[in-house]
Amino acid sequence: MQQFSYVGKSLIVLLSEAVWIYYLIVLFTSIEWGSAASFHVSWWLAAACLGYLMTKVLSGRVHYLAVIAVQLPLLLIIVWQNWLTAVPEDGWVLGIALSLALLFLYVRSGSFVFFEPKRPHMLRRFEGNIIFYVVFAWIFTYNGWATEIFHLLFLASIFLSLLGMVTTLQSDTDSAAQEVEVRTVGQSRWFHGVLSVFVLSISLLCFILFLPVFRNGLYALALTGWGWLTEAGALALKGLQWLFSLLPTDTGGEMLPLENNEMPLLPEEAMEEMPFNLPVQWIVIGVGSVVAILALLVVARFLKGWQPPKGGKPRKLRVTRISLWDKLVSTIQACLQRLSRRWRASIRRYYLHSAYWTYAQVHKWGRKNGLKRQKTETAKEYIERMIARLSEEQTVENDADRRKQAQLLGLLRQLYREYDAVYYGGEINENETNYAPLLDMLNGVTLKKRRVSGKSAVRNNEM
């Protein structure tokens, strides 16, 4: 099975390259002849098979000079027979091109004895098949040279190279030369069947489109669409010409002569105050040049200090095996647990002590007012920073406001002392403090949102 896969991947690469070379020669020959050209490729197939078999049999068993001595006459015979079969009279350029192509196929097929095509080879053939197919299909269809064999060969090459990319994935995974260990994750189950049905459906659709009825209809539809595009382009060009006609035109500075070849007489004041007018094109070009220079300066300044990110190269990568459905279920469960925790956190009876509940409400008020707790802050440091902000922003106009502010700040200090005693010391006071006035007073206060470092605020408060 492994040997069959090896030969199959080699044939995919060789087929793609042979199709490219064949239709490249057909393209230039058809242009020279003025009609569709074609020639026999039976000796191409013989050259590919004999090149692989002879190299497989002789390599490593005899001296390389003996290999050359055996294969060179065989190659000359194949080239001569191909010349007699495919090259017309006086077709020296075509004969040389076909001989070089046959020589390439013979050597290329023999090279697969020494290396196995990998995934990058398949990827490059897949991309090349698509690019060449688009280019050749456009040229051949425009000149009427396209045939069913042309489409079938390119579509078969595209499909086989795509299949080769799938088959080479496992070989790249098991390669011992790689420093990264890749493991297959999850269980595909139904995915292989769905993917196979999808690929077969695409292939069946392509073959159906090759039928004369569908092909002619698509060709007529393409011609109609191209006609609409050309009409739209013509209308757009006329619109641009009309817009340019609105711009002022330059007469070249020449004055039209009057009747009887008399020169116009200008008053002295008009001659002294001649207006200086710049053409609109010069203004547009000048502004565009300034904008382009500024953009280049900005880009150069950015590139001067920019450094591309340096990606790390892992030496060992281990992936935990988990199915897709299990991952989906675990994600949904984690989301539901977070929602449940948020809902329970909004209930007072969820907390073990009233100090926890009050501190959570104070923290919630602080977040709304742009006073979020830093990751490195303790509860005492956070409330001290809040007290500093309240003392800074609150205005005291009379004794009542002063007493209210003192009560608010005193309750905040009492809160963090009680919170620390319960959280760190495990001390539970039976007579819990009523913090309802604290929450009422905080809800009536609004702070100005600003970004202030937590450590600097605490340091300023201590000073």
Protein architecture, described:
69% of the residues lie in helices and 0% in strands. It has helices at residues 2-33, 42-58, 64-86, 92-111, 119-143, 148-173, 191-209, 212-245, 268-272, 280-305, 324-345, 354-368, 379-393, 399-423, 436-443, 454-462. Helix 12 packs across helix 14 and helix 13 (379-393) packs across helix 16. The longest helix has 34 residues, at 212-245.
Brief sketch in words of this structure:
This protein has 463 residues and is mainly alpha-helical. The protein has helices at 2-33, 42-58, 64-86, 92-111, 119-143, 148-173, 191-209, 212-245, 268-272, 280-305, 324-345, 354-368, 379-393, 399-423, 436-443, 454-462.
Return Rg in Å: 41 Å
The tally of strands reads 0
Biggest β-sheet strands, sense, barrel? none
How far from one another are the termini? 80 Å
Total tally of structural domains:
4
Overall morphology: elongated
Separate helix tally? 16
Indicate the proportion of strand residues: under 5%
- The chain-level structural class is mainly alpha
Return the average pLDDT rounded to an integer.
76
Which parts are unreliable, with pLDDT below 50 for 5 consecutive residues or more?
269-273, 452-463
Helix content class: 55-70%
What is the H-and-E element order? HHHHHHHHHHHHHHHH
Index terms:
0% strand, 463 residues, mainly alpha
